[in-house]
């Protein structure tokens, strides 16, 4: 152009090297403008091309093959968040999508789009209903929706700059004084149209989380950018400065209750708490014999839940060991009265305790109302010796807990205290006599349940038998006054 040619001669002290550099710059600028114009014409031709018809399907294919294609790769199209409005009307969307989507998929995407719109309007009930309908029509509707939004946004980004740059060409031809500014705007608009925007990180794929069921549907509606928002806008969020890797390392040191409380803070916390590395450690530490049968492996259980370790931990039956199962039982006993017209009844209360250990040992204690749970629980250890205290073995099969070989320990000597270093001068003179084996053993069958709040916090007593060791005879005991066992957590006891 004339303006670029006049630039080198504007200064009287310009040398031959400066003139050569200016010519190279001008030539490079002209080549760049020509390349931008070619790319812009390709975008305009793509937008103005009529949609293929059924009667003449071969002709457009020939034209498309002859026409040069855009150089930007297909997978790197601009990303549209679920909350952003559609770039085109639904009718145009349907016509453009009919070539590669079925009618059922188009219908599912439209329902999903309406659900997003209702969610933006805070109409959550209607949005939830539409989300369910959309996933019933197509289980992958969320992926189809995001893919179509990316395609439509790419088309919209290609059409907008071309229409916006047409008046610039008219201004450039009408006014030579503004030619440089018009060309600069033209180049900037074309470069912006050809710029490739990397898609944002989807919440469902953040750090490789794995969720399923209703929780996966909820996470799929989260926006791409997840942040910790301050409760007071005037204050910062210090936790937002920590990287996700450090937050996950902190979460792995907490128990499941604290993790779920943290997950209820906001969306990013919910997504971080779904990281499989957190729940994998819980599952691997808990689900081993006797929690699962010897014939079944942990991998089989995990595969049953589609590798969702959180669901394994929540839904796979397990006997809890971070507390004690307590059954509060009552019965009425008739009393004696000196007056014949006065009837006296006594309400008798007693407690049954069950404490399970990871090695398959179980402690059972029957105590009367004189010993309250606050007094008994700290004493409930294998070294305890008192009336009604038994030690046995337990196994879990599905939701059924089998307790066998329950032997009463009231007459047996306490276990040796290895921590006591005080010498005993009368050790050889006062040894207890050898104990005879117990003549009777007890066994229980219980059903593990989750109700009303908490997981696996109830044990229903199905059968309670006494076994004569010598003959193996089994005698069922009545369960008239027995009640279910309810779990009570003890913070100082480990979970595995």
TrEMBL record:
<comment type="pathway">
    <text>Protein modification; protein ubiquitination.</text>
</comment>
<feature type="compositionally biased region" description="Polar residues">
    <location>
        <begin position="85"/>
        <end position="98"/>
    </location>
</feature>
<feature type="compositionally biased region" description="Basic and acidic residues">
    <location>
        <begin position="26"/>
        <end position="43"/>
    </location>
</feature>
<dbReference type="Pfam" id="PF19270">
    <property type="entry name" value="FBO_C"/>
</dbReference>
<dbReference type="InterPro" id="IPR036047">
    <property type="entry name" value="F-box-like_dom_sf"/>
</dbReference>
<feature type="region of interest" description="Disordered">
    <location>
        <begin position="1"/>
        <end position="98"/>
    </location>
</feature>
<dbReference type="GO" id="GO:0005737">
    <property type="term" value="C:cytoplasm"/>
</dbReference>
<feature type="compositionally biased region" description="Low complexity">
    <location>
        <begin position="1"/>
        <end position="12"/>
    </location>
</feature>
<dbReference type="InterPro" id="IPR036181">
    <property type="entry name" value="MIT_dom_sf"/>
</dbReference>
<dbReference type="GO" id="GO:0031146">
    <property type="term" value="P:SCF-dependent proteasomal ubiquitin-dependent protein catabolic process"/>
</dbReference>
<keyword id="KW-0833">Ubl conjugation pathway</keyword>
<dbReference type="Pfam" id="PF12937">
    <property type="entry name" value="F-box-like"/>
</dbReference>
<feature type="region of interest" description="Disordered">
    <location>
        <begin position="417"/>
        <end position="438"/>
    </location>
</feature>
<dbReference type="GO" id="GO:0019005">
    <property type="term" value="C:SCF ubiquitin ligase complex"/>
</dbReference>
<dbReference type="InterPro" id="IPR045464">
    <property type="entry name" value="Hrt3/FBXO9_C"/>
</dbReference>
<feature type="region of interest" description="Disordered">
    <location>
        <begin position="155"/>
        <end position="178"/>
    </location>
</feature>
<dbReference type="InterPro" id="IPR001810">
    <property type="entry name" value="F-box_dom"/>
</dbReference>
<keyword id="KW-0963">Cytoplasm</keyword>
<keyword id="KW-0802">TPR repeat</keyword>
<feature type="domain" description="F-box">
    <location>
        <begin position="236"/>
        <end position="282"/>
    </location>
</feature>
<dbReference type="GO" id="GO:0016567">
    <property type="term" value="P:protein ubiquitination"/>
</dbReference>
<protein>
    <recommendedName>
        <fullName>F-box only protein 9</fullName>
    </recommendedName>
</protein>
């Amino acid at each position: 152009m004339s303006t670029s040619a006049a630039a080198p001669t504007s200064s009287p002290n310009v040398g031959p090297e400066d003139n050569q550099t200016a010519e190279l710059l001008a030539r490079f600028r002209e080549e760049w403008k020509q390349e931008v114009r070619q790319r812009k014409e390709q975008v305009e031709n793509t937008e103005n091309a009529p949609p293929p018809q059924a009667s003449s399907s071969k002709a457009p294919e020939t034209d498309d093959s002859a026409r040069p294609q855009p150089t930007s790769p297909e997978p790197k199209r601009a990303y549209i968040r679920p909350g952003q409005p559609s770039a085109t009307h639904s009718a145009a969307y349907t016509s453009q999508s009919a070539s590669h989507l079925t009618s059922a998929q188009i219908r599912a995407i439209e329902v999903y789009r309406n659900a997003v719109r209702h969610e933006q309007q805070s109409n959550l009930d209607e949005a939830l209903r539409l989300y369910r309908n959309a996933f019933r029509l197509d289980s992958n509707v969320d992926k189809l929706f995001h893919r179509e939004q990316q395609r439509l946004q790419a088309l919209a980004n290609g059409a907008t700059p071309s229409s916006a740059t047409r008046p610039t060409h008219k201004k450039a031809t009408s006014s030579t004084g503004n030619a440089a500014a018009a060309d600069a705007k033209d180049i900037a608009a074309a470069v912006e149209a050809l710029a490739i925007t990397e898609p944002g990180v989807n919440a469902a794929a953040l750090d490789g989380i794995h969720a399923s069921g209703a929780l996966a549907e909820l996470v799929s509606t989260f926006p791409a950018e997840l942040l910790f928002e301050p409760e007071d806008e005037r204050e910062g969020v210090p936790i937002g400065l920590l990287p996700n890797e450090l937050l996950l390392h902190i979460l792995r040191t907490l128990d499941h209750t604290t993790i779920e409380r943290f997950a209820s803070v906001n969306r990013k916390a919910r997504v971080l708490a779904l990281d499989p590395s957190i729940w994998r450690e819980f599952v691997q530490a808990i689900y081993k014999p006797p929690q699962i049968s010897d014939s079944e492996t942990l991998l089989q259980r995990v595969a049953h839940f589609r590798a969702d370790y959180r669901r394994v931990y929540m839904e796979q039956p397990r006997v809890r060991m971070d507390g004690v199962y307590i059954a509060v039982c009552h019965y009425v006993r008739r009393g004696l009265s000196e007056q014949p017209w006065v009837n006296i009844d006594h309400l008798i209360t007693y407690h049954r305790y069950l404490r399970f250990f990871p090695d398959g040992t179980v402690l059972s204690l029957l105590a009367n109302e004189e010993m309250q749970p606050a007094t008994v629980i700290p004493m409930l250890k294998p070294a305890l010796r008192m009336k009604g205290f038994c030690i046995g073995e337990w196994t879990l099969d599905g939701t059924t807990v089998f307790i066998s070989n329950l032997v009463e320990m009231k007459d047996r000597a306490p276990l040796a205290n290895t921590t006591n270093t005080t010498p005993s001068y009368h050790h050889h003179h006062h040894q207890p006599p050898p104990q005879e084996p117990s003549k009777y053993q007890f066994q229980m069958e219980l059903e593990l349940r989750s109700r009303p709040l908490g997981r696996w916090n109830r044990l229903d007593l199905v059968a309670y038998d006494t076994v004569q060791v010598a003959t193996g005879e089994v005698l069922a005991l009545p369960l008239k006054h027995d009640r279910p066992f309810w779990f009570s957590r003890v913070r100082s006891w480990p979970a595995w």
